[in-house]
Structures are given as C-alpha cells and as structure tokens.
Design goal:
two-stranded antiparallel sheet; globular; Four Helix Bundle (Hemerythrin (Met), subunit A); mainly alpha; 16 helices
Length: about 350
Amino acid sequence: MLARRHIIAAIGALGLLLMTPAASRAQTLNAKQSEAAAAYDRALGDFKSILAERRSQIEAKQPLPNLPGQALYLARVAMISTYKDLTDAVPSRIGKPNKFGIPPAYFDAAIEPLVDEYANLFEIMEAPPASAQNSATPFEDVVNLAAAIARAKGLAPADADAAGRISLGLFFAETNGKQNVRNGRSNTYMGSFQTGPSEDRNGHRKWEAIKSEIAAANPELSARDDKEEARARGTDHRFNHWTNVRDGLMNAHADVFRDIPGIVKTLPDPIDQMKLFELIQIIPTPTRSALRSGDLLNYRVSSATIMKHLRNNSIFAFGQADRARSSASFREILAAMWLFKRKFEKAMAKYSEIKGR
C-alpha cells in the first residue's frame, strides 16, 4: 500500500513539474507548434487522470467498467501520438533515451513513472481467475511444446530449437511472460497465449491429429500432456497454461514452423523472427501470403482493415504521420514494431537461461 501511495505522489509531483514549462514554452513557439504542445499537454493530463481513476477504483474495491483497460490504452496511444506530433513540430523536444526502448521522438523519458503505473494497473486488472491452473515451469513448457511440434512437422533439431525460442517470444509479446492472464481490453482473448474460444478448439483438434506422432517421439512430453488434459477437463482450457500454449501454437503457428529454415535465412536476427511470428497472431492471412510470395520483406499490404489491425496492436499507431499511412511493406512493419522489442529481449534472456540449465 505504501509503495502505491508513493507512485500516486510521484505522479502528482510529475504533473506539477510538467505544468510550468508548458506555459513558458508557449511564449516562444509559433501557432502550429503551440497547438502541438497544447495537444500533448491535454493528452498527458488525460492519461494521468485515467491512471488515477483506475487506481482509486481498485484501491476502493469498486466495480470496474467493462474492458477497464481500453480507456487506459487509448489514453496512452493519444499521449505517445501527440508527443510524436510535438517533436515533429519542435525537434528540440526530442529528449534522452528511455528504459522502455521507445524511440525518444515518441516518448518523454521524464514520464516513465506513469507508464510503470500503467503496467501495474494492467497486471491487477488482468490477474488470472482463482481457478486458473498454473505451471511450475511456464517458460520451459512453451519451449518444449514448440520444439516437439516443430519436430513433428519435420524440422531438424536446430530449427526446432528456433521454434522454441520464437514461441517463447510470443508468450512475452502476448502476456509479458505471465501465465493464465485475462485481458483488460477484450472479453474474448484469454490465457497465456491470448486465444479466443474458437481458436482454442481449433488448436485442440489439430493437436489431437499429431498427438500419437509426438507420443512416439517424446513419451515424457506426451505423459505430461495427458496429465494436464485430465487436470483441465471440464474447465476452460485457456486457463490451464500447458493446454492454452499447446492449442495456441497449434491453431496459428504450427503450420508456419515448416517455413522456419527460410525465415531464419531471410531474418537472421532472432528478434525479427519473433516479430514475424507475432504478425501471424495479428494479421495471419497477409503474413502467410508474404511468406509465400518469395519476397517477404518487400511484400506490401494496403488493406484499410489490415492497417487498422496493425494500429490496434501498436504498429503505425502513434502520430499523424504514422497514422496517415495507407500501406506498408513487411520491412516497414517489422521496423515499426519497436514496442515489442523490449518484450522479445526479455524472452531471449529467458531462453538463454533455460538453455544454460
């Protein structure tokens, strides 16, 4: 409780610090620049306000609105967007690097505590239900399941290892490595791999089709699967970490594992590989088309619906220039996924730790 009071006090103090410079800056800026500064100040104020509102509701144990994280998310998008518009208009406002790895043109490092509070609130709002079935080895489960599935798809051991590493990246991209979580922005997508009910069922059907093959090659993993399947019987499989990871991988990613040898050649950076598989989660059809095209990086998407899906997942979402884009190549999309980089770096560190053991 004391730590939370310190966070709230810090947010209030930060607000006071940010109010005075805004007035003095306005005296030296032209009309367009002043408008950009005012828009950012409003967005920053709105972000602080919704942070304080959610914190107050949670502390008072008041009922939260439906999708309690959506207003927070939109306020954060507006804050980053208006800051990018401000730095486009006033480049001198670009400051120092920040701990989140966000390009400084998009984010003022002075407000890092606000984003820490944002993450803290989401962790509370997305806490697993009491009935969730945790795993004692959540990260190893992801790696082992992915590698076993990849081997069943015909991949060599080195490429199956890549599948495990990439899938661990997906776990961090979807939930920051937290198992069995809910979703503050959706009533559909839940669990460690954030799947909907139909995706979970589809993945389960696909798993049943290759289960005997995996059992023959990896009896120990198959025995674990039998145990978890029995444990999850009669419950929502998405809140058993093992079954949700298994079915999530089978639903969206397992068929693409066959392309890993070519993907690794085209994208030698492991983080870029993770980004591409996250795009299978976000825009599956265009990503599969890009892989089949023979020119992955230059494959271009121009559908307004696809661009909307990208923006809804923090890609080309910030600032007027980015949001005005009507198309993008996969090279540009991968470059724009900078909000995912820190999560993938955490996944890489965890993967190295697992392999080190």
